[in-house]
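Students often ask why we bother encoding 3D structure as a string. The short answer is that it lets us treat folding as translation between two languages. Here is a chain of 435 residues written in the first language.
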Amino acid sequence: MLRRYKRGIAALLFTLSGFASASALAQNAPKTSPRVIALVDANVAGVDGEAPIANAVVLIEGDRIKQVGPASQVAIPAGTQTIAMQGKWLIPGLMNMHTHMGLKLTGAMGGAKETASGEALRMASNARLSLLSGVTTIRITGEENGNDFALRSAIERGYAMGPRIKTSGMIIVPTGGHGKLEADGPYEMARAVREQIKLGADWIKIAISGGIGDQHGDIASAPMTDAELAMLIEVAHRNGIKVTAHNGSPAAATQAARLGIDCFEHGYHLGEPELRLMKEKGIWLVPTIVVSRKGALEFFAKLGLPPENIARAQSTSVDHWAMLKKAIAMGIPIALGTDQFPYEPHDGTTATIREAELYAEAGMSSLQALQAATIKPAKLLGMEADVGRIAVGRYADIVAVDADPTKNIAALRSLFFVMKGGSVVRDDRIPGLGQ
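And here it is in the second language, the structure alphabet:
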């Protein structure tokens, strides 16, 4: 036994010495210069409302943008790889603030038969398809089994392909609520929040009313007590974490706004008094309007949503649409989110693009709708210095379309080119790239 133990220690020391030698070699290896790429013959759309840059060059060093301007003002270093954009329009990568990469409803995709590892693999596939659809940053608003944390890590380490991820871990709810992590009473709520932060949550997601996909509970209910909700929000904020709430209830919205919530998802039945309170307190809205539009019916059927829940979605649509129109007219801060997979087919395009189009149909200008998919989510996430604009110092997260989407948001339907962090992941002009 002692002999085997000594051999094990010797083997471990030998292995560690190998790691140390490899580390020393890596530290002494010559430094390589970051790759430099130039997107040329492009038009850069003015997402802040400024004039577009015609015949532009976007110079990229490594994963960030080094220079942007007219070709006459940007010197391209020798040896730079150039990509001709042929007069197409460049915009920042799209952002989707309400996603579930592991989304499955009743009977969906094997339902209860799907293992945690199987779900993780499916989530990786969904992340890849989301990135290829032009969505370079997402906020995940509820997953199980810690798969969202694993997926985020895998993408950051380069083991998987997908958007940048901010995530909330599991949805925290009172017993019987719209989610799986159940807690009752203020101290259970505090513990649940701390557990998700310990695992790596960037946000905390709660459900303060019922949902379209529930088999029980009322969308207009407000089941959490003041003590529970106040404790949950306080603990999150003490840890520097914002809180967003699945909500369709006016009563729950008033309660949560009073207690310091940061963001509402959906907002199905909110009226003018609740929206006015949101504007007063700077509470964000992520509308997910696509889930109550006719185009979502195919998605719900594919996921196995029972007929009674499809009817519930349809009955919600009138109030949901009226809420969105009021929110836009009142100037509520809105960030795009879909509650469908970002790439999900919807009315001849993707759910993400259709969501932006619906904002324009509900009263936004095309510029405002584009901002809801780019600079507004960046602000919501506190990532303005990194994403949301094609500007010096930001990540080179860039997509290309045929026309200026600040003039007509439907131009997003022509999206054909996707770059994340300076790497081209899709270019429809190159056979096989991004397929």
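Translate back mentally: The first helix runs from residue 2 to 28. Keep this in mind for the problem set.
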